[in-house]
Amino acid sequence: MKKMITIIITLFILSTPLLASDKPADIYNEANINYKNGNYNKAVELYKSLCDKKIINSKIYYNLGNSYFKAERIGYAILYYEKALKLSPGDDDIKHNLLIANARKTDIDPEVIKNPIIEFVKKIMESINWKILRLILSISFILTILLWIIYFLDINMPITDKLRIIMIPIIILLFLIFLYRFDLATNKRFGIVIKQEINIHSGPSDSNTIQYNIHEGLKVKINKQRGNWYLISIPNLQDGWVSKENIEII
Amino acid sequence: MMKHLFNKKINLYVIPIIIFFLTIVIIPSVKAIQVTASVNNNTTYVGQALTYSVKISGIQSAPKPQLPSIPNCSVHYTGTESGFSAGGSAGVLRFITFKYIIKPLKSGPFTIGASKVTIKGKEYTTKPINITVKTGSPPARQKAPARRDPFQQMVQGNQSVNMYINPFLSKKTAYVNESVKLIYFLYLGSQVGLSLQGFEKPSMQDVWVENIPIPNNQKPVYKTVNGKRYIVYKLVSYELFPTTAGTRNIGPAEFHLNVEQFFSFFGKRKLLKSPALTIQVKKLPENNKPGNFDGAVGNFSVTSSVDRKTLNQNEAFSLKIKISGNGNIKSITKPIMPELKRFKIYNKTSRMKTDLKKGNLNGSKTFEYTLMPLSAGKLTIGKASYSYFDPKTKTYKTANSKPIILNIKAVSGKQLASSAAFQKHDIKLLGEDIRFIKEDSKKIDTYNITITRPVILFLFELLFILALFLSIGYNYYNRILSSDIKMARASKAAGKFRKTILKIEKKIKPENLDEIISGIEKVFSDYIGNRFNISSTNIILDKLEKIMGASIDSKTINITKDIIDECRSFRYTPSGSREEVIRRLIESSKETVKKLEKTNKKGFKL
Questions:
Q1: Residues B326, B372: contact at Cβ < 8 Å?
Q2: ipTM exceeds 0.85
Q3: Size of interface A-B (CB pairs under 8 A)
Q4: Closest to B531 in 3D by CA, of B588, B437, B476, B594
Q5: In terms of CB atoms within 10 Å, which of A60, A161, B265, B289 comes out highest?
């Protein structure tokens, strides 16, 4: 009898991981299998279920973008590649796939003159891994505090005198990069057109004049929200209002 | 008596005035509500607008009437008018009129059915109105003289006209697909408030029309016509592109304006019509016409750009070819592409962008290609070109872009094999050009970007912040001490005493009692000296009371005196009780220091 109970308990413990299929990793793996088998819509459904659980991870967004791309829903593909890129701006795979997806959309992104120096600085800031950045910031912070403790305790260590001063701009710089990256990942200033063709109105209602049309996949800046309408802007074009249902925030 | 008469006279004037105002205010509200419908003309022509009004009398405000369906007509609501009418059997009547413009699209008689409106739960209906719609154009009311200058003619013909529409045509002769600007200006003889309620576009055939938006904040321009000064506003602006050669007629445009009147709260509707215009459209010359000419007329330039100039052999990149300039941008089909033999072309998209700066229809059309280099080394993307007809020089021209040199890096054999496969099966593999999914499910449920750090790191940071504050406090304390000797001595006195007295206590032996007692005297005197900022050598006991101050009670002062005195007279103590006395003195000095520390906190500024 004792042996029987032991076997039952062992079987129960072993079977626990199989039963717990609502674990994010299991759903993720199942979605991957569906993607590999060409069941893109099912893969979309499963990856989306992870997003619904408020899991914010660039890998999920990237794979979701791939699934939408395969399902020929370019607007959503671009949306999720952009979401992934916000979290992992240095990821080459995301950049590559976004480029391919952008080439498939109807509208070409308006040309914006970019400052090469700013772009270079941005590239450096975006290339740093978030966790490493956070760790460097913490260590630098602790080191700076330590140097100032030494100073306040009047401990005679000549090497710390210069280092203490140098660390201040370093920590400010790291903090600014940290803020930039955090804002990049969390801002809600841009959106993607998810409908095939949408009208841009001069005011927040259908009765206002249609200024121009834009198409699925175009990235727009969201300036304001009024009721069910967004005031959007596209470089070199007039600002206009668009119904919320046509745009998904990145 | 006089006073009485005066009052009577006053009443004669005042009472009717009061009654009049009461009539205005009260009577309209008690009058019966009436709803009537009317048209400005019962006979009209196809395409000619007529005004349909639903007047609701006896009420100040009313809901919008429900119109019957009017077949074969376009109906536009143009607004309301409200006010009151005085006189007649009805007395003073408030009214509100809802106005509509009805434009018949078919000839023959028709009836505008009854309109309905519900006021205070009661439904009111209007009588149906019969309309006759004729074919053809309405007869001219008066024969106009030869129209050399329609605007001058209008002003001269009727001096009372203080506003008119002046259309401006940038050219009367143009080539096929050449841009011609058509602007409708409103000339106002005096400053009046007005709004454009409706606009009927002019009829045009074989003309491509582009609407140029008018800025909302346009400033008026002042012009003098026949000695009269006019305020000029731009109402509508078009850019026309005739599509075939010959004479192109531009019909009259109709502007429905609401003009505010000086002594009235209610605007007056005014219909202004522009005169008809014609453009002579010439064919494009056949001489020297390039073979790839697609009909563009204007002035264009071509530029090409790539998203990066250095890349790997199997990497996709984007090539943009942009045609920009003045002319019918929408009619641009495609540029003449450069030679791209050493590249694989995946797909092409195009986007048009129009720019309305300075009221001109400038713009660009960009063609984007996704390419992949097939070999390594320096590869050149040649010139892209576009041919057009320049109406200014009356010649055909070809705009070219500059060539682009790319630096293509060679890649490993495996990657090359993949790109070779691409060449063989590029149609099948077109969908495979995105990179594969990320399969690693490790830490999939962790957020990529969080402001929070691991708990240990966070606690560590907190600990250091705390240490920093403590060190700042310590530093501040030291600085105060260094600037205040009295306080510095007082604050360290007890500590020194405790340390030294403990050492002395441990050293008590029968053979060194004299040494111990002098030690006790010294440490206690040092404490008193430090605590009260006096010299610790040879403390004069009689002056202790004055030195220690009023904050110390006399009992403690006496004990202090006794300790020092007993230490000094120790040599006279009998040998049998010496160790016992020393221990008592130590305990007594400890207790006294404790008491003095407590009392001194009040007396000393730390």
A1: no
A2: no
A3: 133
A4: B594
A5: A60
